[in-house]
Design a protein that fits this description.
mainly beta, 4-stranded antiparallel beta sheet, 0% helix, elongated
């Protein structure tokens, strides 16, 4: 069984036991979170698509880690003008382990 879940304006295809990294979610390491914004659920050839979400379906996940992603460098310049600007960014991430997909 698999599901397509939306969190942090991104969609993830998840199955039982998968580990995914999503934008930071509130909670401590070891806590269980429920992802209720499920767009699609499928098992074999049987697929249920939501409009926009599938009612009564939730995905349970455990928070494995709260961490920061790799550093991204933003460098801007204008040629021959002496304008240079360097900026860095690290996204806050949450690592999740999928515990189960619960349907109604």
């Amino acid at each position: 069984m698999y599901a397509v879940v939306t969190t942090g304006n991104r969609q993830y295809r998840v199955s039982l036991g998968d580990t995914i990294e999503v934008q930071k979610l509130a909670g401590a390491v070891g806590e269980t979170v429920a992802l209720t914004n499920v767009q699609m659920v499928g098992q074999g050839a049987e697929v249920t698509i939501g409009t926009p979400v599938v009612p009564g379906v939730r995905v349970e996940a455990r928070i494995l880690d709260q961490k920061r992603g790799p550093k991204i460098i933003i460098f801007k310049h204008r040629r021959r003008k002496g304008y240079r600007k360097k900026q860095g960014h690290r996204q806050s991430l949450t690592a999740l382990r999928i515990l189960g997909i619960h349907t109604a």
